[in-house]
């Protein structure tokens, strides 16, 4: 079953190729940072040394019977402290390197930390802040355990400083929630500071359909980032999931990447990092029925909700109806402006129903309005170069042009997953 034709040419014609040699040269200077991370690895070594030093001293005192209960507790807290600082270091080393220098390509590694698939400078800041709060709690606890040897002055300041860490962590978590939700406007929502867009060094290659040979090859499964450390995001996630109008809850993790005959898992894994939402770019998933386009679109939407973005899901026909209704009520402009509150709109099923010139114009207005304001994630049964067949009238080509500018395009090809299940049931 191969309903979506689409020659390589068709896929290529819709891609845009901004090539800025100077930009690439500047971007290449990020490698200057690489040695810094190796320096931190050396610092990590210092902590390992310190840890075993402390541990040895503790064991010695226990063996020689000089260890009081308080001493043991303090010594253990000190060890915990060292481990926590070492954790913080590894987070900065791996997360920072991955964000600012180069993708490490740990995806699929069985020890890949969950947060790494979702790392950006925002997440990193929140993680660091929470790690620092953890360390400062241990310090504070040490002071209180050893309260007879701690001056009131030190206790007071220890508490004040700890509170300051908590407040700043809460502020950071808050900022990476609602601010990311609004697409990181104004450039201070960490996303936009992320200097390592995956397009980075692909050079002219990155004109290839679906951005083929990018960096390291991230593969499924891409774990959903756990965000227990960012309460501001967590609390709203369920509400956002409810409000998004997904037809079913589908997760990227449940997508069997081996089922499609042809499928760009790298691009999907990259989409899963949601940079396209932060960058307000579009994405198109195209392929025959039953190949999991809606599944992937929902999976990406779920992930966006969990990352703090508001999302709305509807089919192209439903979007057209919604806009027609708004226009009839004389509030099309307001409706479009209200949609700005959603960094990601999902437009499912382009292609099954043809749109007349009027509906095409409405959808064009949506695409044009979103252009560089927010992301659209579109699924269709044919390559975007052939979306013109679906949208009648003069708005069609303009719509396609806006839609695919800077868009990530994923082509899925293969047999219907529904059919596979039907035939295997039949065989049973
Ligand atoms: P499409 O939108 O491309 O027509 P769907 O996303 O609706 O296809 O997929 C049809 C059904 O098959 C859904 O229940 C979906 O979860 C499932 N499905 C499709 N492809 C896969 C896959 N590769 N792995 C797991 N489930 C899949
Ligand atoms: Mg579908």
UniProtKB/TrEMBL annotation:
Its main location: membrane. The keyword S-adenosyl-L-methionine does not apply. Residues 279-413 form the AAA+ ATPase domain. Residues 199-214 have a biased composition (Low complexity). The chain crosses the membrane at residues 71-97, 154-175. Pfam families: IstB_IS21, UPF0114. It is found in: Cell membrane. Keywords: ATP-binding, Cell membrane, Membrane, Nucleotide-binding, Transmembrane, Transmembrane helix. GO terms for molecular function: ATP binding. InterPro entries: AAA+_ATPase, IstB, IstB_ATP-bd, P-loop_NTPase, UPF0114, UPF0114_bac. Residues 183-240 are annotated as: Disordered. It is a multi-pass membrane protein. HAMAP family: UPF0114. PANTHER family: UPF0114 PROTEIN YQHA. Belongs to the IS21/IS1162 putative ATP-binding protein family. Belongs to the UPF0114 family. NCBIfam families: HI0507 (TIGR00645), IS21_help_AAA (NF038214). This is UPF0114 protein ACH49_04540. It comes from Streptomyces leeuwenhoekii.
């Amino acid at each position: 079953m191969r309903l979506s034709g689409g020659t390589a040419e068709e896929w290529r014609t819709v891609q845009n190729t901004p090539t800025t040699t100077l930009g690439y040269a500047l971007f290449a200077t990020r490698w200057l940072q690489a040695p810094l991370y190796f320096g931190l690895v050396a610092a990590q070594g210092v902590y390992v040394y310190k840890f075993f030093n402390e541990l040895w001293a503790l064991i010695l005192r226990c063996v020689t019977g000089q260890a009081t209960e308080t001493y043991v507790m303090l010594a253990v807290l000190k060890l915990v402290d060292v481990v926590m600082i070492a954790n913080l270091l590894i987070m900065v080393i791996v997360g920072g390197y991955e964000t600012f220098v180069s993708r490490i390509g740990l995806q699929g590694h069985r020890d890949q930390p969950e947060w790494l698939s979702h790392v950006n400078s925002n997440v990193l800041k929140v993680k660091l802040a929470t790690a620092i709060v953890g360390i400062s709690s241990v310090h504070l606890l040490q002071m209180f355990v050893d309260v007879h040897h701690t001056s009131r002055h030190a206790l007071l300041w220890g508490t004040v400083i700890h509170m300051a860490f908590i407040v700043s962590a809460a502020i950071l978590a808050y900022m990476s929630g609602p601010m990311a939700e609004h697409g990181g406007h104004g450039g201070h929502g960490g996303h936009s500071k992320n200097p390592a867009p995956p397009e980075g060094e692909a050079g002219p290659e990155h004109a290839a359909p679906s951005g083929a040979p990018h960096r390291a090859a991230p593969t499924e499964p891409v774990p959903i980032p756990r965000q227990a450390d960012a309460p501001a995001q967590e609390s709203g996630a369920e509400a956002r999931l409810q409000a998004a109008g997904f037809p079913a809850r589908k997760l990227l993790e449940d997508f069997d990447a081996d089922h499609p005959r042809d499928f760009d898992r790298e691009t999907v894994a990259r989409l899963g990092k949601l940079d396209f939402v932060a960058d307000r770019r579009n994405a198109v998933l195209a392929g025959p029925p039953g190949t999991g386009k809606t599944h992937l679109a929902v999976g990406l939407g779920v992930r966006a909700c969990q990352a703090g973005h508001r999302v709305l899901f509807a089919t192209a026909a439903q979007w057209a109806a919604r806009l027609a209704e708004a226009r009839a009520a004389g509030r099309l402009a307001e409706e479009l402006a209200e949609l700005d509150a959603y960094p990601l709109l999902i437009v499912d099923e382009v292609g099954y129903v043809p749109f007349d010139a009027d509906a095409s114009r409405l959808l064009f207005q949506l695409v044009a309005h979103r252009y560089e304001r927010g992301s659209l994630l579109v699924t269709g049964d044919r390559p975007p170069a052939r979306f013109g067949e679906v949208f009648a009238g003069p708005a069609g080509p303009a719509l396609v042009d806006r839609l695919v500018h800077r868009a990530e395009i994923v082509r899925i090809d293969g047999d219907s997953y529904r059919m596979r299940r039907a035939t295997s049931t039949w065989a049973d």
